[in-house]
Amino acid sequence: MDSAPDPDRLAALLKPRNIALIGASERAPHAAALMRNLLRFGFPKERIYPVNPRYEQLFDLPCYPSVGAVPGDVDLAVIAIPRDGTVQVMEECAAKGVRAALTVATGFGEFDDTGRKRQAELARIVREHGIALAGPNTLGYLSLECGAALWSSPLPERLTTGPVSAVFSSAGLLNLFLNTAADRCLGFRYAIAPGNQVGAGFTDYLRAAVEDDGTRVIVAVIESMSRPQEMAGLLDLAREREKVVIALRLGRSQKGGRAVTSHSGNMATSGAVWDGLFRQKGVIPVDNLDQMLEVTALAVGTPEPYSMPAAGGVGIVTISGGDCSFLADICERNGVDLPEPVGATYEAMRSYFDKESFNGNPLDIEELHWADRPGYLECLETFMRDDNFAVVCCRLNLPKSPSDRLTQLYRESTAALRRGGKPFLFLSRASEQLDRSWFEFFDELDVPLLLEYEKSLRAVRDVLALSRRRADGASRVAAAPAETGALRGVLAGGDASHGTVRRLLRAYDIPMAPERLVSSRDQAVEAAGQMGFPVALKVESADLPHKTEAGGVRLDLANGDEVARAYDRLLEEVGKKAPGARIDGVLVQKMVEGVAEVIIGTSRTPDLGICLVFGLGGIYTEVLKDVAFRLPPLGSADAHDMIREIRTYPLLTGARGRPKADVPALAEAIVALSRLALDFRDEVDEIEFNPLMVLPEGQGVLAVDTLVRCAAHGTTPDGN
């Protein structure tokens, strides 16, 4: 369904006042599970209407022969029958005036031609009658605030209500996550598997979670969604409301798709752009359900994850010297800041351990917690108060089952850590099979227990980063330049000529390398002499977006004679390699040397629209694919974050004695391109500066080669 369901009907789906269970049965697995789950989570029994013509009574309730026979209005019809009867029942629901429906049958659009036909019929009924439909091809959903546990499979015995809302494209993965989360004492508000999204879609369920006051943490497994461009606004709203969003993106590569002219377009796969959007909007991306579980446990167990200290790294306390090296290695490869304690803390530690040297962070407390409990607790509190640490992680003894001796240790440790006044948590070394009583104990303490060092420390890193990005806020869109209206008309007609592109760059204050378009050898020699050697010659042709392949570029020409010879050879070679190409002239351009050559550009993705790409040029772009993506609009903080994201960022900051690049000017150019892309989103499909020369610190940037591809398929002639 392309548009959102009516809000009242969506409310009937997610917060129904009554439910007709069509296909009700005490023996059919799906129908019986639905009824048991509803009763277990407290949905009022008297507001459930079993519907099955074979019975007069089910579950000690009157059973009706059809939905039309149910007395009064029906908010939600749950259709628990096989595929081939679903369309007829949906027609009966429409005739009854049912506002919302859930169908759990499979075998529709995901299965065969008959299924696709049935799904199209369901879509027609939804459109004509405005029913908010969940499914088909789903196990259902949970809306536990009102007791609507509409899951057609047995739910974990230990599943409880809580602050987590989950929207998963896969019902099977959601079922697994519910089971593992229940073992960790994580409770839910919503848990929804959208299925084939014939009616209500992924975006509708995500909005419900974002707008729900009781939801603090949102976990999402995303394969496809309705109205994906609404996602950015929803993620901004989630950040504004201080909700933690954790996402696992499925199908990260884009198979097929149209051919594109620019390098940017070739690199902009949907998966890569989604990753950039997540980072831009403060979403915590994860690669698997194990990571998702640890980040969720940390976010739920941290009262205000958006309010972690603005400065400082991670402090770690352990009871094993071998673990110190192990933990240091994990932190280094995952970008976890592991600072040493301040001098005063180090001196205090020395008195506790009565030794001259020891690891300051991670700190091995050895047997201090058993040998000298008061000294250990004082040591722990001192470590916790160190200004270099934003959060402290503690690993103590953790056998399979708790004992009174150990629980007392953890209670006293928690009290000491809490006096330090900053976030803390406990860790296990590995993904150990602990009794649930451990998780119940830490839930009682109101402290997170995370499993396995690497997953846990990555979770800590990501939640810290989330807190620190929040201050950047949403980017504001600057007013369009005065010349925008006139340029829109030109570009809408497909004119991406040299003059048009230069007007465009000047309007957005994107500086260009000195250049001049000429039409003769003598003009080329004169222009080169005026701007100073060395220079480059580049053929100008709308038919040659990548002119190097046609022999249309000559570089590093050191004097007038070289320019004259190069001019003739350039036109001769282009005439041989591209005999039909229209030649608009030759561009004489001053050769520019910078600290780095970068590529910045835009492309249009099928699901998220226009995106921006940034990376270093040359092999870093073509071979290493070391690029970052964002969606416009971008602010300065977004642009700097984008620049820092690439692996080769140190090459811009003076690594190994190189001069420092003008990174602020580069960020300004990215923001300007973001504005340009947004202002001309209807007229221009792709823009690319490749390369954009980044000059030494304080000297700015210069565009050397520019490619513009109009929506009307006109292409600028000055890309290489």
Write a concise keyword list for the protein shown above.
Rossmann fold; 29 strands; 720 residues; six-stranded antiparallel sheet; 24 helices; seven-stranded mixed sheet; flat; alpha/beta
CATH superfamily of the largest domain: Succinyl-CoA synthetase domains
Shape estimate: flat
Number of alpha- plus pi-helical segments = 24
Which residues sit in consecutive blocks of at least 5 with pLDDT less than 50?
254-269
Summarize the main sheet.
7 strands, mixed
| CATH architecture identity of the largest domain | 3-Layer(aba) Sandwich
The chain-level structural class is alpha/beta
Radius of gyration: 31 Å
Fold-level CATH name of the largest domain: Rossmann fold
Q: What is the residue-averaged pLDDT?
A: 89
Instruction: Please write the CATH class name of the largest domain.
Output: Alpha Beta
Q: What is the number of E strands? A: 29
Order of strands in the sheet with the most strands? Answer: 9-8-11-10-12-13-14
Oligomeric nature of the chains? single chain
CA-CA gap between termini: 43 Å
Indicate the proportion of strand residues: 15-25%
Number of domains: 5
